[in-house]
């Protein structure tokens, strides 16, 4: 009996942080989930190539694609690399994101506002736009958008980021409603303060420590780990989550509950 084909995932922003952790998690088999071949899509070529080396060293199949998610053609090329290189697309994780400067809302420049939306919202939209037709035609597929707990609540000094992540949650829920009859699921994860280069950069802007940051409402009183978010993404991509769509799953140490 022939073996089942290897499923294929595209992960944007996979050179570091949560994106790399997601790529590593999907490359490993888990409950209701076989190992995936992974297309690592990122603007950071050095980090992306290093991520591919790490995946291959672990026995996974991976390919790097240079991708600036603010350019629709780049996102389209990343999505289509899955079908061109591996013959199928099963999973898209729209992870690439930026935080923007830590400023009061009236001090945010229009250029900074646009940049945050171009990466966080437009990038996710481009991914959904180009993945959905392939998945609908195949009658299967999973999209996971990496939003944020900032997409569920307000965040002082980060109006653009919070507004953009609320938009990602809205995109997720609407797309889920549209494609559910075709066998495609769309969900979002909403990480809290996670130990990533982006959070480290934000702490540098505000002068806060990680301990001070997590006292703002994190019941667990520590930063999250990228692998903790990645395991939630991997669950949503698995058959174990076959009845889950249109959700925004908070992985935030209790911030949204506080």
Could you explain the architecture of this structure?
The protein is α/β, with parallel strands linked by helices. The chain is built from eight helices and seven strands. The protein has helices spanning 17-26, 45-57, 72-86, 110-138, 159-179, 197-206, 210-214, 226-236; strands spanning 8-12, 37-42, 62-66, 91-94, 141-146, 184-191, 248-251. Strands 3-2-1-4-5-6-7 form a seven-stranded parallel sheet, sandwiched between helices. α1 packs across α8 (226-236) and α3 packs parallel to α4 (110-138). The longest helix is centred in the middle third of the chain and has 29 residues, at 110-138. The radius of gyration is 17 Å and the shape is globular. It starts with 7 loop residues before the first strand and ends in a 7-residue tail after the last strand.
Write a brief caption for the model.
This protein has 258 residues and is of the alpha/beta class. It is 44% helix and 15% strand. Helix 2 links the parallel strand 2 (37-42) and strand 3.
Defining traits:
globular, 8 helices, alpha/beta, 7-stranded parallel beta sheet, 258 residues, 7 strands
Query: Mean pLDDT score, rounded?
Result: 92
The secondary-structure element order is EHEHEHEHEHEHHHE
The count of strands amounts to 7
| C-alpha-based Rg, rounded | 17 Å
Largest beta sheet: strand ordering: 3-2-1-4-5-6-7
**Unreliable segments of 5+ consecutive residues:** none
For the termini, the CA-CA separation is: 52 Å
Number of helices: 8
Q: What is the general shape? A: globular
């Amino acid at each position: 009996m022939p073996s089942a084909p290897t499923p294929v995932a595209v992960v944007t922003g996979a050179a570091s942080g949560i994106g790399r952790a997601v790529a590593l998690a999907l490359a490993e088999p888990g409950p209701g989930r076989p190992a995936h071949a992974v297309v690592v899509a990122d603007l950071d070529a050095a980090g992306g190539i290093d991520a591919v080396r790490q995946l291959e060293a672990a026995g996974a199949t991976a390919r790097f694609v240079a991708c600036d998610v603010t350019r629709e053609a780049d996102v389209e090329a990343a999505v289509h690399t899955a079908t061109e290189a591996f013959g199928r697309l099963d999973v898209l994780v729209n992870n690439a994101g930026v935080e923007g400067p830590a400023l009061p809302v009236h001090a945010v420049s229009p250029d900074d506002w646009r940049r945050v939306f171009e990466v966080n919202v437009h990038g996710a939209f481009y991914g959904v736009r180009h993945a959905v037709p392939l998945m609908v035609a195949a009658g299967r597929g999973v999209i996971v958008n990496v939003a944020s707990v900032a997409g569920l609540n307000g965040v002082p000094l980060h109006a653009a980021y919070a507004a953009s992540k609320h938009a990602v949650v809205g995109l997720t829920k609407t797309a889920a409603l549209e494609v559910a009859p075709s066998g495609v699921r769309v969900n979002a994860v909403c990480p809290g303060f996670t130990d990533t280069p982006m959070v480290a950069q934000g702490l540098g802007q505000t002068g806060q420590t990680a301990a001070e940051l997590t006292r703002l409402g994190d019941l667990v009183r520590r930063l999250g780990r990228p692998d903790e978010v990645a395991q939630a993404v991997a669950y949503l991509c698995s058959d174990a989550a076959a009845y889950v769509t249109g959700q925004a799953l908070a992985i935030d140490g209790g911030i949204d509950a506080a």
